[in-house]
Amino acid sequence: MISRSSWFARFAQQVAWITGRPAAFFVAVGIIIVWALVGPFFNYSNTWQLVINSCTTIVTFLMVFVIQNTQNRDTAAMHIKLDELIRVNRSARNILLDLEELDDTELEQIRTEYENLAREAETMRRKRSGAAAGDAESKAPPRPTRPRAKSTSSKSGGTKA
Prior knowledge:
It contains five helices and no strands. It is mostly helical.
């Protein structure tokens, strides 16, 4: 079932692992310090500035692809794991298996449904704890709810500015 990864996937994982270490950060800081210290020897020339600008641009450009590859792989693996957990749970709704394929309106409807379920569960919990602890806790102010994220699309299908 498990096949060998492509050479780029193996390379990207290795580079991401190496560059994500504290030592890589300190190497980068060291390079910048050395570059700054040799500035007086080059009279802070345009060439001296071009060296660091070119190097950082090239490294940044290449790292975008490496990081994106590892992120795509990690996200895909996480989705497969979550899909498996949903699949084996008898009370789970199978519509949740493909949430990433739904449009914004459908996602908003499902999120609203789950927010309503959370409010109902909170109400039930308060009723149970109120009956067990007496009226003191049931008179406590309601817990604030998490603010909802603003939708990026309007009902007409456009995006908000």
